[in-house]
Specification:
The N and C termini lie far apart (40 Å). This protein has strands at residues 3-7, 10-13, 18-25, 32-39, 46-51, 57-59, 67-72, 77-82, 91-99, 107-108, 112-117. It is built from no helices and eleven strands.
């Protein structure tokens, strides 16, 4: 089993930056794909970004050029670096993990709130 805990959320002004952390325990996630998702009030959860064990990253079009993902395997942690934040980025952000080649994410954190004020 993998337990995931997100942190780093908060209130920031538009144009500002935040770094979210996803700390894993129970198993090393260096060979896992870790994804970031978000859910705004009244909206469905959506994909934001992901990073494979190889370091390959994917981003939703809405965050390309503004968000990056990195991983620090020694700390069993993945980071979501968010720059040039917009009010529409306001949501609860979740990290999730899956084995390479798996379609679904079986492991999820509880989320961290990000609020961007205009």
């Amino acid at each position: 089993q993998v337990q995931l805990v997100e942190s780093g959320g908060g209130l920031v002004q538009a144009g500002g930056s935040l770094r979210l952390s996803c700390a894993a325990s129970g198993r090393t996630i260096s060979m896992y794909t870790v994804g970031w998702f978000r859910q705004a009030p009244g909206k469905e959860r959506e994909f934001v970004s992901s990073i494979r064990w190889s370091g390959t990253v994917f981003h939703a079009d809405s965050v390309k050029g503004r968000f990056t993902v990195s991983r620090e395997n020694a700390k069993n942690t993945v980071f979501l670096h968010m720059n040039s934040l917009k009010p529409e980025d306001t949501a609860v952000y979740y990290c999730a993990a899956k084995s390479t080649g798996s379609e679904d994410y079986p492991y999820w954190g509880r989320g961290t709130q990000v609020t961007v004020s205009s």
